[in-house]
Specification:
By secondary structure, the chain is mainly α. The protein has 15 helices and no strands. It has a single domain, classed as Cytochrome c oxidase-like, subunit I domain (Cytochrome C Oxidase, Chain A, Up-down Bundle). The chain is globular and about 70 Å long.
Length: 455
């Protein structure tokens, strides 16, 4: 019999997405090192235009968000969803094509950013050709998700399937709208309308794309690691619909100092607090499913990763509503406090869950045992310690900045005070980068030398 082409083999789509995700984590965190060096030694890359802060920082943010987190979550779910639906993925070739289009979009976007071409909007910096490729990939994934669900043999649509379908379909809609793809030459709307549109997008790329994808993985891994049935499928569905109902409007809390309508500010603040409902559904489901069995989440690295992902989720969603209040923002807005918060949201919650999903399903999609569980454990500790330092030092730096400004001090006056904290941030980042490369090396060695699993 002729050998089956790679793109038609079972789980090849999942494997392609996962490999790209691991590569992107290494590249994205390395770009983060470049931007961190700028904050300690601004002239370190003097006269090297493609390494200037405004370029390398955008590469870091977009590669970690789109390349590492989103791609890895999608890769894990392309294995998970057929399992919970008792069927095969509708089309491995389409899943692989989507991965190639998506990877091309990220790579082209990163190269363009280094060359100085950008649409200059937060999380929407990529140029229009990259937008088209990423949008096409998300549309293809939505098609695969819908068709896989329609062909299922399992009558119950398990909660992970809801979150995966929602994540990719909302992703296609949010990405198109947020990048103003109807304006290909500028990728933006006019004036204040664009600020409102941008922060609708800037929050929903997290809340309606990576959050549901990560939540789908949590709901798959929780019961299996705990060795117990899910506490409540209904609670999971309630969380899904309340996430959609409340998260879509909270981006306006980034614009409390801008002249947007007061009612829109009020909606943003109110919905930020109501978000406790969908967050609580995940955490309560997790805790009640795992009660009496939490020790099982300390036995394997992937289990520890998903456990700490939920802990970062809780911290993020306590801090988020509080910093949406105007009197809190007087101290925290426009400074490093917000950068610390965004890191625990992206790398802490969704990043930890992405790594958990990666190492949980990778043996299944490759047919090989993980080359070194000790390396997975080392990656867990490196990223955990690095991110904890990041969060602590950036929070302190933000409070210093905020109080200097609140007391009438200038930005120039606050900058020298940040030097030790930016240095500690850099050192913490080195731990995260080390974790990314340890994980990439472990993946390569698994593909080459991992013990073949007998079926």
């Amino acid at each position: 019999m002729p050998e089956i082409p790679y793109w038609r083999t079972e789980y090849s789509g999942a494997k392609t997405w996962l490999v790209f995700g691991a590569l992107s984590m290494a590249v994205g965190t390395l770009a983060g090192l470049g931007s961190a060096i700028h904050l300690v030694a601004p002239d370190f890359f003097a006269n090297i235009s493609w390494l200037e802060f405004g370029r390398i920082r955008a590469v870091h943010v977009d590669t970690v968000l789109f390349g590492f987190v989103t791609a890895t979550l999608i890769g894990a779910l392309l294995y998970i969803i057929p399992k919970v639906l008792d069927t095969e993925l509708f089309s491995e070739p389409i899943a692989n094509l989507a991965a190639l289009l998506y990877a091309a979009g990220v790579i082209i976007g990163d190269i363009a950013l280094l060359a100085g071409y950008t649409q200059a909007r937060e999380y929407a910096e990529y140029i229009y050709p990259s937008d088209v490729l990423i949008e096409a990939a998300l549309i293809l994934l939505s098609y695969v998700a819908v068709m896989t669900i329609l062909r299922r043999r399992e009558p119950l649509l398990y909660v992970s399937s809801w979150y995966f379908l929602g994540g990719v379909m909302w992703g296609a809609m949010v990405y198109f709208a947020g990048n103003a793809m109807w304006h290909p030459w500028i990728g933006a709307e006019d004036g204040l309308k664009d600020a409102i549109l941008l922060w609708f997008y800037g929050h929903n790329i997290f809340g309606l794309v990576v959050t549901p994808l990560a939540t789908g993985i949590i709901y798959y891994m929780m019961p299996r690691i705990a060795g117990a049935p899910l506490y409540s499928q209904l609670l999971g569905i309630i969380g899904f619909w309340t996430l959609l109902s409340f998260y879509a409007h909270i981006g306006s809390h980034h614009l409390l100092q801008a002249p947007i309508p007061t009612w829109l500010k009020a909606v943003g603040i109110a919905d930020s607090f109501v978000m406790v409902l969908p967050v609580a559904t995940v955490l309560v489901n997790f805790w009640y499913t795992s009660r009496g069995r939490f020790s099982k989440f300390l036995l394997t690295p992937s289990a520890k990763l998903v456990l700490f992902g939920t802990i970062w989720y809780a911290i993020t969603c306590i801090q988020g509503p509080l910093q949406s209040l105007a009197w809190v923002q007087r101290v925290t807005h426009f400074n490093n406090w917000v950068i610390g918060h965004s890191h625990i949201a992206v790398l802490g919650f969704t990043g930890f869950v992405a790594l958990a999903g990666l190492w949980y399903v990778f043996p299944e999609v490759t047919g090989r045992r993980i080359y070194s569980l000790k390396m997975v454990n080392a990656q867990f500790w490196l990223v955990l310690l690095g991110l904890s330092g990041f969060f602590l030092f950036l929070t302190i730096a933000g409070l210093i900045q905020g109080h200097v400004w609140l007391m009438g001090g200038t930005v120039y006056r606050s900058v020298p005070m940040l030097k030790p904290w930016m240095t500690l941030r850099l050192l913490s980042g080195l731990l995260i980068i080390s974790g990314a490369f340890v994980g990439l090396y472990n993946m390569i060695m698994t593909l080459k030398y991992g013990e073949v699993i007998e079926k």
